[in-house]
């Protein structure tokens, strides 16, 4: 009977709604525990489905936390929640997106190396103008390849072949129009 089916559907919907409410309560408890855990800047939750993730994101937002989802396929996607003062840097987020653990010590080391490289670069710039760049005269530029005499000699022997690519004047004497020439053919 259709009423039986409708009743069954309604019962399922109510059950689903109850489960969502219970799940939300559980997430609210976990999030408040996380907030109180002073030594914990971030917390990674178990993989969960899309609806559960959206509930957790909402709970986190209400609690004033930052949250992100990571993981490629639906089965392994999980949420990480961050306290505001420990909001992740782009580097940190990229690491999670690659499925890596974030190592702040290693990241700090990399940052220091980059900074050092930048400082060295700056120091070199301050040292004064670099020696002039490559000279503009091509003979100077290629002197190491062709020597200084060869370039001049080569330039002297470059006489144009007069016949190359030229139409003899005699061939140009045809003053007929295209129509006249076509008629003749």
Question: How would you describe this structure to a colleague?
Answer:
The protein has 185 residues and is mostly helical. The chain has two domains: 2-102, R3H-like domain (Ribosomal Protein S8, Chain: A, domain 1, 2-Layer Sandwich); 103-154, no CATH class. It contains seven helices and three strands. The chain has helices spanning 2-36, 50-62, 90-97, 104-126, 138-141, 143-157, 178-184; strands at 42-44, 66-70, 78-82. It starts with a helix and ends with a helix.
Strand-helix topology:
Layout: H1 2-36, E1 42-44, H2 50-62, E2 66-70, E3 78-82, H3 90-97, H4 104-126, H5 138-141, H6 143-157, H7 178-184
Antiparallel strand pairs: 1-3, 2-3
Helix pairs in contact: 1-2
Notable traits:
3 strands; flat; R3H_dom; nucleic acid binding; R3H_dom_sf; SPAG7 protein; Ribosomal Protein S8, Chain: A, domain 1; 3-stranded antiparallel sheet; 185 residues; mainly alpha; SPAG7; 2 domains
Q: What's a concise summary of this model?
A:
With 185 residues, this protein is mainly α. Helices cover 57% and strands 7% of the residues. The chain is flat and about 100 Å long.
Q: How many strands appear in the DSSP assignment?
A: 3
- Indicate the structural class: mainly alpha
Helical residues, percent: 55-70%
**Which stretches are low in confidence, meaning pLDDT under 50 for 5 or more residues running?**
none
Q: In the CATH scheme, what's the topology name of the largest domain?
A: Ribosomal Protein S8, Chain: A, domain 1
Question: How far do the termini sit from each other?
Answer: 94 Å
Q: Please work out how many helical segments DSSP would assign.
A: 7
Assembly state (oligomeric): single chain
- Give the overall silhouette: flat
Number of domains: 2
What is the CATH superfamily label of the largest domain? Answer: R3H-like domain
Instruction: Please write the string of helix (H) and strand (E) elements.
Output: HEHEEHHHHH
CATH architecture descriptor name of the largest domain? 2-Layer Sandwich
| Strand coverage percent | 5-15%
Strand order of the largest sheet: 1-3-2
Q: Radius of gyration in whole Å, from Cα?
A: 39 Å
Region (Disordered): 116-141
Pfam families: R3H
GO molecular function: nucleic acid binding
Domain R3H: 21-84
């Amino acid at each position: 009977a259709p009423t039986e089916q409708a009743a069954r559907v309604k019962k399922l919907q109510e059950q689903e709604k109850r489960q969502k409410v219970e799940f939300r309560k559980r997430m609210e408890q976990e999030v408040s525990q996380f907030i109180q855990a002073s030594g914990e800047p971030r917390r990674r939750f178990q993989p969960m489905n899309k609806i559960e993730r959206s509930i957790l994101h909402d709970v986190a937002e209400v609690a004033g936390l930052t949250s992100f989802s990571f993981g490629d396929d639906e089965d392994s996607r999980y949420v990480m929640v961050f306290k505001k003062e420990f909001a992740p840097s782009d580097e940190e987020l990229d690491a999670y997106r690659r499925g890596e653990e974030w190592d702040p010590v290693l990241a700090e080391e990399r940052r220091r190396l980059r900074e050092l490289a930048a400082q060295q670069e700056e120091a070199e710039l301050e040292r004064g103008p670099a020696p002039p760049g490559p000279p503009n005269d091509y003979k100077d530029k290629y002197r190491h390849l062709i020597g200084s005499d060869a370039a001049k000699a080569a330039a002297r022997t470059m006489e144009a072949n007069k016949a190359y690519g030229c139409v003899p004047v005699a061939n140009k004497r045809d003053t007929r129009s295209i129509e006249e020439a076509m008629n003749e053919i």
